[in-house]
Amino acid sequence: MVAFHAFATVSGEAIPELFIDRSPMYFTLILDWMRTDMVPTLPPSIGQRNLIEEARFYGLPRLVHDLEHLLYRPTRFELYQLMLAKDLSQTDLSGMSLRGRNLSGFRLDGANLSNADLTEADLTLATVRRPGKRAEAGRGGD
Asked: 69: closest CA among 26, 112, 113?
């Protein structure tokens, strides 16, 4: 629900006040995204799909896209293709076993590696940036 009310200012002019009846839990995360331009790390109590719906409500297509992209989980064949290309950026690898894999030189920018087993994995020269972090033009890395 969205409601408009008016209240008086010091100068006596009426300024509209906006009341949005939505969950402050999601709004806080959306506000953080607006401030930092980085997809927020979600606490376990918040569903990613619910945050996507809130982003749609507020008319934030870029946040919707970034969140939906984080939900992408490749099939085994797609993962094989990505491994050949050495590009696992923006891929959900959570809980996967990458134990002992040679990931040297791989792009892992924005990949979800939570609970992934990286024991003895070779990450030499791999690039890893946080989800939502945007590289500036002309910069080599963060």
From this structure: 112
